[in-house]
Amino acid sequence: MNLEEMKAAVVDALEDVKATDINVIDVSEMTSLTSCMIIASGSSNRQTKALADNVQKKLKEKGADINGVEGEREGEWVLVDLGDIVVHIMLPATRDYYNLEQLWGAAESRRHNAKAAG
């Protein structure tokens, strides 16, 4: 399965369990750890866990490897590591607090400014 197919499968799995505010961020030029981050919100700890479970189930069915899962016990922020894609499923308050979209956007801005200056 290529990266685009994986992205689509993750988004579909999140939409199946009614995730909100799904954001796909290409981080391939900012880190060698992963190519893409997908961030989504769940309305409760139970839903974040169900979202993570569905992502794992659907991607395994398509032959993807699950490298690891963190945060399932608490459910405030569940991370599913698929290698080329890292999925962050968060409660809205946790998502607002950590604001990963801004963090990675700021990293990209700094990277572009450094290139422009050099």
Automatic annotation (TrEMBL):
One of its GO terms (biological process) is cytosolic ribosome assembly. GO terms for cellular component: cytoplasm. It holds the Pfam family RsfS. It is found in: Cytoplasm. Keywords: Cytoplasm, Repressor, Translation regulation. GO terms for molecular function: ribosomal large subunit binding. Its main location: cytoplasm. InterPro entries: Iojap/RsfS/C7orf30 (IPR004394), NT_sf (IPR043519). Belongs to the Iojap/RsfS family. Interacts with ribosomal protein uL14 (rplN). This is Ribosomal silencing factor RsfS.
